[in-house]
Amino acid sequence: MRISPIQKALFYSFALCIITLNSRAQDRKVTLTQDSKFEQLLNEKRKINTSIAVNERYKIQIFSGDAEKSKKTLNDCKQNFTDLDGTIVFNTPNYKVWIGNFRTRIEAERNLIEIKKKYETAYIIKPQK
Q1: Is residue 12 part of a domain?
Q2: HEC-encoded secondary structure of 80-126
Q3: Residue 90 clears pLDDT 80, i.e. is over it
Q4: What are the tens digits of pLDDT across the range 21-73?
Q5: Nearest CA among 119, 57, 62 for reference residue 96
Q6: How open is the CA angle 26-27-31, to the nearest 5 degrees?
Q7: What DSSP assignment string belongs to 22-79?
Q8: Could you tell me the CATH number of the domain that includes residue 118?
Q9: Among the four residues 37, 67, 95, 120, which has the most C-beta atoms within 10 Å?
Q10: Could you tell me the pTM of the whole model?
């Protein structure tokens, strides 16, 4: 007995239908377990973030120029001054490297003395946002 191509197609179609009815990719149930301390930490972080105003903080600008040199300067600065945070900010047409996040100008000036030993053109700024 010879099986015609139509019979083969019907058989494969039927088999495929049965397989797809029995297969499932994923269950719809998702359970998430979260430590209660995580929620406490998150609430504390939210309180701190609302109390910090960016405009009231002083930073030190150590570089202004193109993107590649700013990246190199930031990496070099992070190695020399590990206790200060640094970031690159783009203000048309220059990339600027800012370090520190000082509450008072006096604190910024104390750090500026050390920073000027390595970066002579460094100066204190108070970003406006």
Answers
A1: no
A2: HCCCCCEEEEEECCEEEEEEEEECCHHHHHHHHHHHHHHCCCCEEEC
A3: yes
A4: 777 666 678 788 888 888 888 888 877 766 555 557 899 999 999 999 999 99
A5: 62
A6: 115
A7: H--S--S-------HHHHHHHHHHHHHHHH--GGG-EEEEEEEE-HHHHHHHHHHHHH
A8: 3.30.70.1070
A9: 95
A10: 0.57
